[in-house]
Design brief:
single chain, globular, alpha/beta, Rossmann fold, 2 domains, eight-stranded mixed sheet
Length: about 325
């Protein structure tokens, strides 16, 4: 595994320090990678997405997770300064720090929501947009993920819902979990994080190559991840309902590829379909044997990146 070319911690001036790294060709076409979750953080293996001769890959751990500090799992964690607007500002701060004028933006799962929000806020800074496992984190999508998809996984959903105490059963599950994850009792917090992450692993399991996420074995990761996901989900990603689809025409003129698995029940295909209909310079590629992830999705991402290479099939001008 190649080591990063550069690493650093970018300070926002308000106590948040964001870990970032670059890899590949320092003079290559810059590509920003936006990880999922929210709260998954970046991994070393994600550097493999970038042809080291062609691209300058830029990866960073979003606020509250990975190697960024402070962590959402900290005892005194305060997530009030962790919103989509804050993350967009972090991206712009990183772009300016690295001296990048325009870059390709690659977002996966939650990263596709963040990539869309960033591109709609700063369209002149986006040379191309590649989104995989597309979601807009709308309240209707969150309701599907925490309630309706239980019709496909009834046993797992029953365990997920039953972990909420009777006194909180009147609340939407995402709100109940968000409160349990900050409960004063450490055992309550740990149990809620374990139950939330077990449900996360269940509803992505239709991918043919799915294996349980080993990161969920780490109690610190579990708590940070679950806190961040519930924080963003209960607030509909801090966006107006339907905003990212409504404003998709802002992206017209930006070349894009949307990659989605036919069997993705975590993020049903209709969101990517609706986005492709409104964003006229995008193409939707459906991977017929994939769910929410898998080797077929990764292969499609590599092909799409190759299109956007300087000598690829698509022009970035």
């Amino acid at each position: 595994m190649a080591a990063p070319s550069e690493t650093g911690m970018l300070d926002d001036g308000a106590g948040n320090r964001m870990y970032w790294e670059t890899c590949g060709n320092p003079k290559g076409t810059p590509v920003l990678f936006l990880h999922g979750g929210p709260g998954s953080g970046c991994s070393d293996g994600q550097r493999r997405l970038f042809d080291a001769n062609v691209f300058r890959g830029v990866l960073f751990d979003q606020r509250g997770c990975g190697r960024s500090r402070p962590l959402a799992s900290d005892a005194d964690a305060d997530l009030s300064g962790n919103t989509t607007a804050h993350l967009i500002a972090d991206i712009e701060r990183l772009r300016e720090h690295l001296g990048v004028d325009r870059w390709i933006v690659l977002g996966v799962s939650w990263g596709s929501t963040l990539g869309l929000a960033y591109a709609q806020a700063y369209p002149t800074r986006v040379a191309a947009l590649l989104l995989a496992l597309v979601t807009t984190t709308s309240r209707s999508e969150v309701r599907w993920l925490t309630q309706d998809v239980g019709r496909i996984f009834p046993r797992e959903w029953d365990r997920f819902a039953s972990a909420v105490p009777d006194s909180m059963r009147h609340m939407p599950l995402v709100d109940a979990y968000a409160e349990l994850l900050f409960d004063p009792d450490a055992a309550t917090r740990a149990g809620a994080a374990r139950a939330w992450c077990a449900w996360e692993d269940a509803h992505v399991s239709l991918a043919p190559t799915h294996a349980p996420d080993r990161k969920f074995e780490d109690p610190v990761f579990r708590l940070a991840f679950a806190r961040l996901v519930t924080h963003y989900w209960r607030h509909g990603a801090f966006l107006e309902e339907g905003q990212l689809l409504r404003d998709a025409s802002i992206l017209n003129g930006i070349p894009g590829v949307l990659i989605h698995g036919r069997f993705d029940v975590s993020s049903p295909l209709d969101t990517a379909w609706q986005l492709s209909r409104r964003w006229t310079t995008s193409r939707l590629e459906v991977i017929e044997d994939a769910g929410h992830g898998g080797s077929g999705v990764v292969a499609a991402m590599l092909r799409a990146l190759a299109e956007f290479a300087p000598n690829g099939a698509r022009s970035l001008r």
